C-alpha cells in the first residue's frame, strides 16, 4: 500500500478522523450518473458522483473545520475560533462552532455573497467584512492573538486534510476498481485529502 508523504494522512489516521466527526457530518450518497450524453462519453465505463452538496452547510468544508476543532488538546477544546473565507469555509467554521458550543469570528470580503454572510450569522458567527485578502489575514492574526482564538485554515493544515480525506475513504470503501477521480481544485485541500485516501485504498487510481 502506498504511504503518503505526511504521516498524519496515513489511512489509519483518516479512519480515526471519520469516527471523530461522524456524529456531526452526513455520509453523503454516491450516485451513478446515467444521462444518455454521459453514457455516450464514457462508453463501457461508469461515472459516479459523490453528492457532497448534501453535506451539512452544502459543501465538504465542515469535515475539515470540525476536525480542526476536535483534535485540539482537551484543555483547549473551549477556545473560540476564527477564519478567513470567501464563503463556504466561513459557513463551515460557523457551523462547527455552533455545533461544539464555542464562538466563531469570521472575516469575509465586503462583496461576498449576501446569502453566505447571512448563513454564517444564522449559525451565530460574528462576521467582519474587509476590503481585501491581505487586510483579512493581517486582521485574522491580530484577532487570534488578542482574543485567544484558534485559526482554522481552509486548506493548509493536517487536520483539514484529514477531514477532506474522509470523503476519499467513503468513496474508496463504496466503489471498487476505480480508474480515475475528478476533483475540483481551489486551495488544494480537497484534492490533497481525497487523493491521499484513495491512493492508499486503491493504488492503481
TrEMBL record:
Cofactor or coenzyme needed: pyridoxal 5'-phosphate
Keywords tagged on the record: Lyase, Pyridoxal phosphate
Example of a GO MF term: L-serine ammonia-lyase activity
A GO BP entry: L-serine catabolic process
Pfam families: PALP
Keyword Lyase carried by entry: yes
Entry keyword annotation includes Lyase: yes
Domain Tryptophan synthase beta chain-like PALP: 40-204
Sequence similarity: Belongs to the serine/threonine dehydratase family.
Name this polypeptide is given: Tryptophan synthase beta chain-like PALP domain-containing protein
